[in-house]
Amino acid sequence: MKQSKLFPKTKKEAPRDAMAVNHKLLVRGGFINQLMAGSWTLLPLGWRVVCKITQIIREEMNSISAQEVLMPLMHPKEIWNETGRWDSAAEVMYKLKDSREKEFALSFTHEEIVLDLVRKYLQSYVDLPIKIYHFSTKFRNEPRATSGILRGREFLMKDLYSLHATKEDFLKYYEEVSEAYLRAFSRLGLKIILTEAAGGVFTQNRTREFQVVASVGEDTIYVCNKCNAGFNKEIFKGKHGDQCPKCKGILEERRAIEVGNIFPFDTYYSEKMGVYFTDKAGAKKPVWFGSYGIGITRVLGAIVEIFHDEKGIIWPKQVSPFAVHLIQIENTKKVKTASEKLYKEFIKQNIEVLYDDRIDKTAGEKFMDADLIGVPLRIVVSERSLAKNSFELKQRSDNQKTELVKTVKILAKLKSLKIL
User: Fold this and answer.
1) Is the Cβ–Cβ distance between 54 and 158 less than 8 Å?
2) Domain end point (choices 286, 309, 332)
3) CATH number for 301
4) Sign of the Cα pseudo-torsion (114, 115, 120, 123, in order)
5) What residues contact residue 287 under an 8 Å CB cut-off, 6+ apart?
6) Residue in 195, 312, 173 with CA at minimum distance from that of residue 260
7) Residue 177 sits in the same domain as residue 209
């Protein structure tokens, strides 16, 4: 991608109301744009990052035998009435009527929709378990849509749903999902605190949250300094400095961002919606049901909150919008020819490259934009480096070190850095 064609351009100043780091840097870097409070456009750079995030999560969901689908976002009132959540979850739902006075809700979750889908096909125990997931938009009437993209009224989520014939099979899969989540978050570069929490409008059962410690986080959790167990303040009766109830270590209070949550529903919703199957003995039984969510756009914001410095974002390479930021800092024929040749070679080698070919920017302006956008590896083409038959190479995570790499060895260098 040539940077001269990239939409939009970077901004020097953050929005006046921006308090969170992710809000400031993602807007300035041209990753997101705010339509209104809690509603964001993912711009080309932001969408590239989100696609990387979703692919990592998709791979982990597929690894536990889940199948991908895509479900509707507008739901009829009648389905929500079957579980009573048309009224009990009214505070978070967006409701609307059409021209015929028929009532609908915009999806804040999909439990009812999944159960309605499954009961059309489910007959006997041989049809179970069922494990389906999708990436889709959710709408929630958040009273405080703050902290940039971390808390929106409209956002992207991955939600997985599983249905089982027995409690034992459900609990086994619940742990499999938990492990898959930990693998996914590790691949995304996030250090997770597994946290016990309340189920909110979803369930009376305890749930398992996946929290990332960050000062901007809206959750208060207590983390054991010995076994790393976490407890959400909403359910925990203790305080900072108390003993951990699991290992007798010391609990420390932390602010955290919830990036994922898994819910055990038992047979509560399936009984309400009449989702039954016939077991081996011919008896009708309700399915055991679980729901598992990851906030995709929230993960985007959380990564920026963790990986940044005073100059801008420092993307982990596995989610960076590009692998290499190629910068031509002089407009001489020699520099331009070498830059274009290298750019074409990167494309040939399927290396994702952002090529700063702009002629109206100084070297300093280009470097400032590169630091802001945060691509992991920067390659600079200049008269000085070419005089030594070399390119300048710098990793975004290293503020000091610049390395000269011979032009004929640049692909070998990228291979050693696991970019090629």
Assistant:
1) yes
2) 309
3) 3.30.930.10
4) positive
5) 118, 122, 128, 163, 164, 165, 267, 270, 275, 276, 277
6) 195
7) yes
| 358 and 273 housed in the same domain | no
Residue-level pLDDT at 248: 86
317 assigned to some structural domain:
no
Domain that holds residue 385: 322-416
Per-residue pLDDT tens digits for 171-194: 999 999 999 999 999 999 999 999
What pLDDT sits at residue 198?
Answer: 80
The segments of the chain whose pLDDT lies below 50 read: none
Count of domains for the chain = 2
Written as six digits, the tokens of 204 are 């009376």
CA distance 191 to 310: 22
| Predicted structure pTM score | 0.96
- Residues 116 and 161 occupy one common structural domain: yes
pLDDT score at 201: 53
Burial environment of residue 23 by CB neighbours within 10 A (0 to 12, 13 to 18, 19 or more): buried
pLDDT in tens, 281-296: 999 999 999 999 999 9
Handedness of CA 74, 77, 79, 82 (dihedral sign): positive
- CATH code of the domain containing 363: 3.40.50.800
Report the alpha-carbon distance of residue 108 to residue 92 in Å, rounded.
Answer: 8
